[in-house]
């Protein structure tokens, strides 16, 4: 493109755009180091301190600001995310496996699955609450909310696996079969290494989306709070910097997950390259 | 051995490979996922439609069919106001995510020639998607408040003398918050489509003396349209189903249909909540159907 002026302008714009994306989070992180308990959620920083982080873990003397109910909520959120991750990934891999063959009604099934990620949480959550009410079933995070988390994350796993299988050459598998390799061994040695990056991505999607999910949980879980619900509860009251401190920690946790994912992906890519070199030699 | 191995490969398959009938295997693989979606997605939505015709008493609903809740909804200024607010906010956010996101997508998808850099930029845009949605919403409070970061900077620079109060707890703050949160879903698909444009097409146009605007209008914009539509579908569906951003940033001034549903459920008015839910579903269905007329989603993925 000859218009280097346009390129420069767009580059500057993109920088601003990234500031727009990250600015609020940076401000939130700075304010989480506000002094406490008298320091409020705004500038200026009266004094730098880690008071609100200690407050989060109950290490500060009691004050008028109630601690966030995060201990139990964290356990529930993690358990829910792991359950969702396992079930969604299994469903996603099996459904995408089915889509490798053309079959009648594939369009309908495709849209049915994708619908799960498109229908807003408020609708499916309300519907699930109504179903539970009518059937007289109690709503729990591990029951009604869990099945909705899978409804939401399974389509992501499915789409990721579909993309992987689309680029997957079935003749590799067929070659192994025709050489007399058992299907189980073929799956372990050929199929799984090829789909591993997809499985990993599907797991990351399912875990993170479930860990942060709250609109479905709000309607479909009972009295017990998950982490996002605990945060949502603070919306209607005055916000204190302890919520900001929690935000920083949960964001760091998400980054740690992303980092682990990146490392595992890097390892898998390197392994694939090594295999390719071996083949050439 | 073969028998055992086959059943290990696909647990639902019991027939020996020689007699394996492909359609059966496909249906067995699909059954768990399809069943899950029918039971926990389709059934709840149908239930919502059904309950919207039930009779609402003070604390209960009874399965006696009536149109009363529907009549209440469409004769109430609060509900109709919420419907109008939802449509208005949706349109504004849709346009603003497009305007804010398109130039960034243009830069990332088309102007950055270095593949590593463009991937890095795209990753940078997508990372916030992996962090807590509620925290990102909440992060706008210390930005926009009367003593917030933006007002502080504007006053330091001498641009304003009084803090701008309309920034927080107004419709504007909801729009700013939603634009920031959802513009990623515009940037991604658009940058993806722009990245697929063959550079030689643009070079040919340049060689023939076309100006940048002409190239943009006749080549870049039409080829990026599928990305725009996919992004618009994502943004529309998410904004229409919103209630948390308005709950956090509008100080109860902005009531979307989602907020109406939350309040009605809170006061056990299930039938009214169901009516609002059905209205929202119809609205969303109409929007997505209209957008899908422009592009075949399945072909683009």
From TrEMBL, chain A:
<dbReference type="InterPro" id="IPR051789">
    <property type="entry name" value="Bact_Polyamine_Transport"/>
</dbReference>
<feature type="domain" description="ABC transmembrane type-1">
    <location>
        <begin position="74"/>
        <end position="261"/>
    </location>
</feature>
<comment type="similarity">
    <text>Belongs to the binding-protein-dependent transport system permease family. CysTW subfamily.</text>
</comment>
<dbReference type="InterPro" id="IPR000515">
    <property type="entry name" value="MetI-like"/>
</dbReference>
<keyword id="KW-0813">Transport</keyword>
<feature type="transmembrane region" description="Helical">
    <location>
        <begin position="141"/>
        <end position="165"/>
    </location>
</feature>
<feature type="transmembrane region" description="Helical">
    <location>
        <begin position="243"/>
        <end position="267"/>
    </location>
</feature>
<feature type="transmembrane region" description="Helical">
    <location>
        <begin position="108"/>
        <end position="135"/>
    </location>
</feature>
<feature type="transmembrane region" description="Helical">
    <location>
        <begin position="190"/>
        <end position="211"/>
    </location>
</feature>
<dbReference type="Pfam" id="PF00528">
    <property type="entry name" value="BPD_transp_1"/>
</dbReference>
<feature type="transmembrane region" description="Helical">
    <location>
        <begin position="12"/>
        <end position="33"/>
    </location>
</feature>
<dbReference type="GO" id="GO:0055085">
    <property type="term" value="P:transmembrane transport"/>
</dbReference>
<dbReference type="InterPro" id="IPR035906">
    <property type="entry name" value="MetI-like_sf"/>
</dbReference>
<protein>
    <submittedName>
        <fullName>Putative spermidine/putrescine transport system permease protein</fullName>
    </submittedName>
</protein>
<dbReference type="GO" id="GO:0005886">
    <property type="term" value="C:plasma membrane"/>
</dbReference>
<keyword id="KW-1003">Cell membrane</keyword>
<feature type="transmembrane region" description="Helical">
    <location>
        <begin position="73"/>
        <end position="96"/>
    </location>
</feature>
<keyword id="KW-0472">Membrane</keyword>
<keyword id="KW-0812">Transmembrane</keyword>
<keyword id="KW-1133">Transmembrane helix</keyword>
Automatic annotation (TrEMBL), chain B:
<keyword id="KW-1003">Cell membrane</keyword>
<dbReference type="InterPro" id="IPR000515">
    <property type="entry name" value="MetI-like"/>
</dbReference>
<feature type="transmembrane region" description="Helical">
    <location>
        <begin position="270"/>
        <end position="295"/>
    </location>
</feature>
<feature type="transmembrane region" description="Helical">
    <location>
        <begin position="89"/>
        <end position="112"/>
    </location>
</feature>
<feature type="transmembrane region" description="Helical">
    <location>
        <begin position="172"/>
        <end position="194"/>
    </location>
</feature>
<dbReference type="GO" id="GO:0005886">
    <property type="term" value="C:plasma membrane"/>
</dbReference>
<keyword id="KW-0472">Membrane</keyword>
<feature type="transmembrane region" description="Helical">
    <location>
        <begin position="27"/>
        <end position="53"/>
    </location>
</feature>
<feature type="transmembrane region" description="Helical">
    <location>
        <begin position="215"/>
        <end position="240"/>
    </location>
</feature>
<keyword id="KW-1133">Transmembrane helix</keyword>
<keyword id="KW-0812">Transmembrane</keyword>
<feature type="domain" description="ABC transmembrane type-1">
    <location>
        <begin position="83"/>
        <end position="293"/>
    </location>
</feature>
<keyword id="KW-0813">Transport</keyword>
<protein>
    <submittedName>
        <fullName>Putative spermidine/putrescine transport system permease protein</fullName>
    </submittedName>
</protein>
<feature type="transmembrane region" description="Helical">
    <location>
        <begin position="119"/>
        <end position="139"/>
    </location>
</feature>
<dbReference type="InterPro" id="IPR035906">
    <property type="entry name" value="MetI-like_sf"/>
</dbReference>
<dbReference type="GO" id="GO:0055085">
    <property type="term" value="P:transmembrane transport"/>
</dbReference>
<dbReference type="Pfam" id="PF00528">
    <property type="entry name" value="BPD_transp_1"/>
</dbReference>
<comment type="similarity">
    <text>Belongs to the binding-protein-dependent transport system permease family. CysTW subfamily.</text>
</comment>
């Amino acid at each position: 493109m000859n218009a280097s002026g346009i390129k420069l302008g767009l580059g500057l714009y993109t920088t601003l755009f990234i500031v727009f994306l990250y600015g609020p989070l940076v401000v939130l992180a700075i304010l989480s180091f506000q002094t406490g308990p008298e320091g409020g959620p705004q500038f200026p920083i009266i004094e730098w301190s880690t008071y609100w982080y200690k407050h989060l873990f109950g290490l500060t003397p009691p004050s008028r600001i109630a601690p966030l109910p995060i201990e139990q909520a964290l356990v529930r959120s993690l358990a829910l995310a792991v359950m969702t991750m396992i079930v969604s990934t299994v469903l996603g891999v099996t459904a995408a496996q089915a889509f490798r063959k053309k079959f009648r009604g594939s369009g309908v099934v495709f849209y049915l699955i994708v619908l799960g990620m498109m229908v807003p949480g408020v609708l499916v959550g309300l519907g699930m609450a109504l179903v539970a009410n009518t059937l007289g079933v109690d709503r729990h995070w591990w029951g009604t909310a869990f099945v909705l988390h899978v409804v939401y994350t399974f389509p992501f796993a499915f789409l990721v696996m579909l993309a992987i299988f689309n680029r997957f050459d079935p003749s590799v598998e067929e070659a192994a079969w025709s050489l007399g390799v058992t299907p189980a061994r073929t799956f372990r040695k050929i199929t799984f290494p090829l789909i591993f990056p997809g499985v990993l991505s599907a797991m990351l999607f399912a875990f993170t989306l479930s860990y942060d999910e709250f609109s479905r949980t709000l309607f479909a879980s009972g009295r017990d709070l998950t982490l996002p619900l605990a945060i949502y509860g603070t919306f209607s009251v005055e916000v204190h910097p302890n919520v900001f401190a929690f935000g920083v920690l949960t964001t760091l946790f998400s980054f740690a997950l992303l980092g682990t994912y990146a490392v595992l992906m890097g390892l898998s890519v390197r392994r694939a390259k090594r295999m390719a070199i071996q083949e050439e030699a | 051995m073969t028998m055992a191995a086959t059943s290990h490969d696909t647990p639902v398959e019991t027939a020996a490979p020689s007699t394996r009938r492909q359609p059966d295997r496909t249906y067995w693989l699909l059954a768990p996922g399809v069943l899950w979606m029918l039971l926990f997605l389709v059934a709840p939505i149908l239930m919502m439609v059904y309950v919207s015709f039930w009779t609402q008493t003070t604390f209960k609903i009874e399965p006696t069919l009536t149109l009363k809740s529907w009549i209440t909804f469409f004769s109430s200024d609060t509900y109709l106001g919420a419907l109008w607010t939802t449509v208005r906010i949706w349109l504004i956010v849709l346009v603003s995510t497009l305007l804010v996101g398109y130039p960034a997508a243009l830069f990332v998808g088309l102007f950055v020639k270095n593949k590593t850099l463009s991937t890095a930029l795209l990753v940078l845009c997508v990372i916030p998607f992996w962090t807590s949605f509620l925290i990102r919403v909440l992060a706008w409070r210390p930005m926009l408040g009367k003593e917030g970061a933006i007002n502080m900077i504007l006053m330091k620079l001498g641009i304003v003398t009084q803090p701008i109060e309309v920034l927080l707890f107004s419709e504007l703050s909801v729009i700013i918050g939603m634009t920031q949160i959802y513009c990623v879903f515009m940037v991604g698909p658009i940058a993806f489509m722009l990245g697929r444009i063959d550079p030689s097409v643009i070079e040919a146009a340049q060689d023939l003396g076309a100006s940048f605007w002409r190239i943009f209008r006749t080549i870049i914009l039409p080829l990026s349209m599928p990305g725009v539509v996919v992004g618009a579908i994502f943004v529309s569906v998410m904004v229409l189903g919103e209630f948390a951003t308005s709950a956090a940033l509008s100080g109860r001034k902005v009531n979307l249909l989602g907020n109406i549903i939350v309040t009605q459920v809170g006061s056990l008015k299930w039938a009214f909540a169901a009516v609002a839910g059905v209205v929202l579903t119809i609205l969303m269905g109409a929007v997505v159907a209209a957008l899908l007329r422009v592009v075949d989603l399945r072909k683009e993925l």
